[in-house]
């Protein structure tokens, strides 16, 4: 499967037969808005607001000194993965005070891609915990930030205590090819789970 070329056309291809809702989740300032914007073939819907001094008192800004805006509802984008399959991407707010909001967004979602940052791996536990409570399957993509420590994926898997079956990949949320590969890892995982559940 390969990504479709970017297009300003808001209409779906007539050959599309299947639509899937996927979440892009992760802690505050992990790159969700960038990821959705990089992949969306339509102009992404964004609900970013300028960060305030009051917000700085409750949001962990460590390692994010250049961040000036934050998502307060969701990001939305669309990616036609092949002639028959379209993905609707919903990026969630990362702050814990918005957890209830993105719990509601899991309705109808087939799975989630968890973005992780090696500078703040422990911040991913709350996010993965919510997904597990809701029974939503997920893959993890380590977003490679400039200057962030680089660890072997096996070390990251151990640090995050991931199951062997949980896909773990690297990505650069700014790069379309890299981000597409991360999304494909999730889609292939979801397809494999569906196949396993089908009666012989």
Can you offer a commentary on this structure?
By secondary structure, this protein is α/β, with parallel strands linked by helices. The protein is 30% helix and 24% strand. It contains six helices and seven strands. Strands 2-3-4-1-5-6-7 form a seven-stranded mixed β-sheet, sandwiched between helices. It is globular, with a radius of gyration of 16 Å. The N terminus is likely disordered.
Write the SSE topology:
Layout: E1 18-25, H1 32-39, E2 45-50, H2 53-56, E3 69-80, E4 85-91, H3 99-105, E5 111-116, H4 124-134, E6 138-143, H5 153-160, E7 168-171, H6 176-197
Parallel strand pairs: 1-4, 1-5, 5-6, 6-7
Antiparallel strand pairs: 2-3, 3-4
Keywords: GTP-binding, Hydrolase, Nucleotide-binding
InterPro entries: Gliding_Motility_GTPase, Gpn, P-loop_NTPase
Family: Belongs to the GPN-loop GTPase family.
Strand order of the largest sheet: 2-3-4-1-5-6-7
Radius of gyration: 16 Å
Please work out how many helical segments DSSP would assign: 6
In this structure, how is the largest beta sheet organized? 7 strands, mixed
| Overall average residue pLDDT | 82
- The backbone outline, from C-alpha atoms, is globular
Helix content: 25-40%
| Helix/sheet category | alpha/beta
Task: Please report the distance between the alpha carbons of the first and last residues.
Answer: 26 Å
């Amino acid at each position: 499967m390969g990504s479709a070329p970017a297009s300003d056309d808001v209409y779906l291809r007539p050959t599309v037969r299947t639509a899937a809702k996927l979440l892009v989740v992760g802690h505050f300032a992990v790159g969700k808005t960038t990821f959705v914007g990089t992949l969306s073939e339509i102009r992404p819907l964004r609900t970013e607001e300028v960060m305030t001094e009051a917000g700085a008192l409750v949001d962990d800004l460590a390692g994010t000194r250049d961040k000036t805006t934050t998502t307060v509802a969701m990001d939305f984008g669309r990616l036609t993965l092949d002639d028959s399959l379209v993905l609707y991407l919903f990026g969630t707010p990362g702050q814990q005070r918005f957890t209830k909001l993105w719990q509601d967004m899991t309705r109808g979602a087939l799975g989630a891609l968890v973005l992780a940052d090696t500078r703040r791996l422990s911040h991913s536990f709350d996010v993965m915990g919510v997904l597990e409570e809701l029974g939503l399957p997920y893959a993890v993509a380590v977003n490679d930030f400039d200057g962030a420590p680089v660890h072997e994926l096996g070390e990251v898997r151990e640090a995050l205590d991931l199951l062997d079956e949980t896909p773990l990949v690297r990505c650069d949320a700014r790069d379309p090819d890299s981000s597409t590969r991360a999304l494909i890892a999730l889609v292939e995982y979801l397809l494999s789970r569906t196949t396993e559940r089908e009666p012989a």
